What we know:
The chain is of the alpha+beta class. The chain folds into three domains: 2-65, 2-Layer Sandwich (Uridine Diphospho-n-acetylenolpyruvylglucosamine Reductase, domain 2); 72-185, Uridine Diphospho-n-acetylenolpyruvylglucosamine Reductase, domain 3, CATH 3.30.465.10; 201-285, UDP-N-acetylenolpyruvoylglucosamine reductase, C-terminal domain (Uridine Diphospho-n-acetylenolpyruvylglucosamine Reductase, domain 1), CATH 3.90.78. Helices cover 24% and strands 30% of the residues. It has helices spanning 29-42, 96-102, 118-123, 185-199, 219-225, 256-274, and strands at 2-7, 19-24, 45-48, 54-56, 59-65, 72-78, 81-87, 104-105, 127-128, 131-132, 137-144, 149-153, 158-159, 162-163, 170-180, 206-209, 237-239, 246-249, 283-285. Strands 6, 7, 8, 11, 12 and 15 form a six-stranded antiparallel beta sheet that branches. A four-stranded mixed beta sheet has the order 1-2-5-3, covered by helices on one side. It has a three-stranded antiparallel beta sheet with strand order 16-18-17, covered by helices on one side. It is globular, with a radius of gyration of 19 Å. The chain starts with a strand and ends with a strand.
Amino acid sequence: MLLKNEPLADKTTIKIGGSAKLFFLPSTLEEVKEVLPLLAQDYPLYYLGGGSNTIFGNFKGVVVSSHSLRGFRVIKENSEGILLEVWAGTPLKDLIPLIFEKNLCGIETLLGIPRISVGGAVAMNAGAYGKEMSQITEGVYYLDPLKGEILFEENPYFGYRSSEFPQRGFICKVLLRLKPCSSPVREIVKKLNSRRRKSQPLELPTAGSTFKNPEGNFAGKLLEEVGLKGFCTENGLCFSQKHANFLVNFWQKANLGDVLKLIDLAKEKVLKEFNLLLEEEVKIVSTDG
């Protein structure tokens, strides 16, 4: 499906966005292979997963969504765990019945992140509570839009909240290896989700962590120390009272200008106070000036 001038706010968890010139929503691998290389000839591309860490302005290109590419299958199972082949648009929460039944660990720390998809989690090397996607990713099938081919990368490069994707191409499927837990995974998930609800503003529209944690420090702590915890723009975009590193769109009236204003203010204050330059973790996507 190819849509024109598609509104983007509802495609993200923070509910901020302009529109995309084109919005491509493939439902099959064949559709990805046929259409994406043609679009890549004329437009810039942005690959969208669940929208949990993305903030849009207007985008004069193609937003490519993996939303309809869902499902998974077991490739191999033994006493050491399970190897899964998972479509990129599959929400991580869709794996919950399997990991509870088999008592498998690997994604349990990420399950409380709203709308997070497997492809998006791999692309940004999502992580929480000491675990990240790089530890369980065995390989990635992706489309190179310039070559028009589906390629396989067995050992993708991962950095802190980053990977070689999406620069390499559009993630189609991922191989994940999940291992047996030493304690009941159901209880681990329950405790982590309770902890997350107490410390993060998940009841409000948010894009998750705004800044990456500097080495040996925490972005939320730095933002709190420079007085930005609870600070809001006139349109109700705030650094959360629960966790200063989370932007929340209180009234769902904020726009990209509000986001950029708070990001610039935060970077300026932290640099002045601590001589540390914060780096954005949230993805800002816009072709506006």
